[in-house]
Design goal:
This protein is of the alpha/beta class and 313 residues long. It is built from 14 helices and eleven strands. The strands form two sheets. Strands 1-9-8-6-5-4-3-2 form an eight-stranded parallel beta sheet. Helix 3 packs parallel to helix 4. It is globular, with a radius of gyration of 18 Å. The two termini are 22 Å apart. The protein binds ligand TUI. The site of ligand TUI has 19 residues, from strand 5 and strand 7.
């Protein structure tokens, strides 16, 4: 399990936890890092000082490497970009945008920079700007997504850059992780499976909704306005998709989703809230600790990859 990704991150295993809004806070991040993966704080739309406190709380719980995911659509992205410098965070991942204006300063401070990309064009650009690695995230992932599947995106990104690539979107067990490696990844990012981990501070209703999800329960809203978001279907997605089909404006639809993720994650309102999860939700059945998840993933992947040859194009 030693790859260029474990080398760059300084972790035992090439597994990183997704920077999920409202979910990826210090309890989860420190548990993943303690178990040998890379835990991430998801800055999402949080104010910079909240993120700073989360960083400090991770440090109280673990001496292992961890990271912060900066959601670039956040009104606080600029300030959070500064906080990670001040707090000397070891790893930064970014999502939902292009982080190039921050990269020089992060690199100069010795931060490992790993942008999440959903296209080859952005992957190439990020390599030119000095990214240490990339996360290639396909549309099987939960939350804000791009257009391509992981199966098609990942090998195309791998072929386009020399830096290591981490596969994301649709990985729920060792079969998925082994598949990512066969497609050329040197690590995986996992979100949904960690949402149901014991350490995730997520309402039981939300965890149960994932554990009970069927394969066809995953839907994408917001395609009509170029903001596709993957969640589990409920009353709220039915209303949203109906309005969307009727040609509702972006502003009208936005009103419907305001605060909806927090409502689901913290209050457990999984009927009217936004239950972001990847397509793999239908396969997730077990409640486990982060350590159990990581050790099981590694064992399954090693078994499957035994004897597999590294293929050079
Ligand atoms: O960012 C994510 N997933 C997220 S962010 C989020 S919070 C949110 N909620 C509702 C609406 C918007 C945000 C929930 N889930 N994943 C990483 C990711 N990045 N997926 C896709 C992209 C992406 C897409 C286009 C990255 C860059 C990009 O192009 C930017 C450019 O300028 O070329």
């Amino acid at each position: 399990m030693k790859t260029r990704v474990t080398e760059i991150l300084g972790t035992e295993y090439p597994i990183i936890q997704g920077g999920m809004a409202w979910v990826a806070e210090h309890h989860l991040a420190s548990a993943v890092s303690e178990a040998g993966g890379l835990g991430l704080i998801g800055a999402a739309n949080a104010p910079a000082e909240v993120v700073r406190q989360e960083i400090r709380k991770v440090r109280e719980r673990t001496e292992k490497p961890f990271g912060v995911n900066i959601m670039l659509l956040s009104p606080y992205a600029e300030e959070v970009a500064q906080v990670v410098l001040e707090e000397k965070v070891p790893v930064v991942t970014t999502g939902a945008g292009n982080p190039e204006k921050y990269m020089e300063a992060w690199k100069a401070a010795g931060i490992k920079v790993i942008p999440v990309v959903a296209s080859v064009a952005l992957a190439r650009r990020m390599e030119r700007y000095g990214a240490d690695a990339l996360v290639a995230e396909g549309c099987e992932a939960g939350g804000h997504i791009g257009e391509q599947t992981t199966m098609t995106l990942l090998p195309q990104v791998v072929d386009s850059v020399d830096i290591p690539v981490i596969g994301a979107g649709g990985v729920g067990d060792g079969r998925g992780m082994a598949a990512m490696f066969l497609l050329g990844a040197e690590g995986v990012q996992i979100g949904t499976r960690f949402v149901v981990s014991d350490e995730a501070q997520v309402h039981e209703n939300y965890k149960n909704r994932i554990v009970e999800a069927k394969d066809i329960d995953s839907v994408v809203t917001g395609r009509s306005h170029g903001h596709p978001v993957r969640t589990l279907r409920n009353q709220s997605t039915r209303e949203y998709l109906k309005l969307e089909a009727e040609g509702a404006s972006f502003e009208e639809l936005e009103k419907l989703t305001l605060g909806s993720l927090r409502r689901a994650v913290q209050e457990g309102n999984v009927k009217n809230g936004s239950v972001m999860a990847g397509q793999i939700a239908g396969m997730i059945r077990k409640r486990q600790s982060c350590r159990e998840i990581i050790l099981e993933l590694v064992e399954e992947t090693e078994t499957l990859l035994k004897g597999a040859e590294k293929w050079e194009k």
